[in-house]
Amino acid sequence: MTATDATATTRAGSDIERYDMFIDGAWRAASDGATFDSINPFDTEPWAKVPSATAADIDEAVAAARRAFDEGPWSQSTPLQRATLLRKFGDLIRDNADELARIQVLENGKLIREVAGQTLALANHCYFFAGVAESPTGETLASSVPNMQVFTVREPIGVIAAITPWNSPLALLLWKLCPALAAGNTVVIKPSEITPVSTLVLAKIAQDAGFPDGVINVVTGAGPAGAALAAHPGVDKIAFTGSTAVGKKIAVTAAERLARVSLELGGKSPNIVFPDADLPNAVNGVISGIFAATGQTCMAGSRVLVHTDIYQQFAEALAERTSQIKLGNPLDPDTEMGTVACRAQFDKVLHYIEVAKEDGAKLATGGARPTDPELSRGLFVQPTVFTDVTNDMRIAREEVFGPVAVVIEFTDEDDAVRIANDTSFGLAAGVWTRDVARAHRMVKRLRAGSVWVNNYRKTNYVAPFGGFKESGLGRENGFHAIEEYTEVKTVWIDTGNTITDPFNPRA
Ligand code: NAI
Ligand code: MG
């Protein structure tokens, strides 16, 4: 039996699958029975029904996570026990990777070509954090206070709310879930309303791996469910990936009770091409930065900065290769670009194309829905390149989250740095040059959480990821991630047993 068989029931006479939520180890409907549909963006047909969580359901999920944290076997778990569960979780993700990948494609239209490998690699993510669970984290301090042994321990924060987006639903969830569990927290997940099913199936896999009841809970619903979860007094930390607008709201909500928060938000990342770059390679790198995943990644290299000397030549090569991108069924491994994920996103992308034209950007290729009748039902937008863009245009300042590249001209290194950093965001940047010294100068000057030199959009579980400025707070992945899910406790042990002056601690 596959994980989907266990969570979904198909009604007679309908091919719509029905899923339950996962609260305290049990699969259940919403308390008022309400549901919403998951829609496949390739044919715009609903294919699954998912519960729409009520405030009462969210209360129960948080209470279950609280009990599991305070009282259950998890509260007494050893690092080895948590590591063993994470390894088993990884094994089962690997065994079910094909199915998990297929479900994500049905939900968001991303290419199986990317999602298959990305999903399989999530097993390694679990294995890495299994190792982290058993890695030493505290420090013995070189204190000069007489007769005192001083050390720190890292302890789990408590109940974590993981509020996740639709663009890489499982990867961005595991970036939170693995370190949270490794450190001994419990979790209530609120997946995006666009991609709830993959998270529910993943929760079944976690249950099969043997995580105790209440350690992992999933409540499904739209923005208000996320807001209710973030505002819940039983939640100790909110880990969020999504829009900067919602991230700011969550930070305000968290501030009310000083809940911990980590935010991985939007971007308008510069991908900077110097004349000394390997130009064919740079064209491919710029394409991968903005058209892979239909541009729906937080790290999209959506501002292409090109040096004056090669501006014309590079823009033409980019537009030419872009016009050849093969749109199609995201489940076909030959397809190079799939749909955008949902109707709201589709409308947003087409709106921004109009904004760019109004502001005087020059359309070099794309700019509309494709005309191919086979694609007419899907939420396809042609990969689009605008040239003659200046950095003050809205299309250069606001996140589109779609397949729209803007090409901006720069004159020298200083000019490139000025334009690149002239943004409210700071998630990522790319630099294309064969000059090693220039590469290092640029890395130092770019205000962004990740800088790729002669490559783009690489991530790995060992490598911290997160944003400067309005692109977020905190870092995911690597050893840094564990810091986001722990509190530091400082311990003072008196080895002399001599309180000489009760009114002066320095005595
Ligand atoms: P969103 O930020 O509204 O949604 C992300 C998650 O937050 C979802 O689970 C959603 O249900 C939840 N949410 C929505 N409102 C909330 C609230 N008030 N309190 C708590 N949780 C809430 O993103 P959406 O609407 O899906 O996409 C809008 C734009 O956000 C995109 O066009 C893109 O620019 C950006 N985005 C960025 C992502 C990233 O990876 N940084 C991922 C997805 C979207
Ligand atoms: Mg939204």
From TrEMBL:
Active-site residues (renumbered): 264
Aldehyde dehydrogenase domain segment(s): 27-491
Protein name (record): Aldehyde dehydrogenase
MF terms (GO), sorted A to Z: oxidoreductase activity, acting on the aldehyde or oxo group of donors, NAD or NADP as acceptor
PANTHER family: ALDEHYDE DEHYDROGENASE-RELATED
Family to which this protein belongs: Belongs to the aldehyde dehydrogenase family.
A Pfam match: Aldedh
SUPFAM superfamilies: ALDH-like (SSF53720)
Swiss-Prot/TrEMBL keywords: Oxidoreductase
Top-level taxonomic group: Bacteria
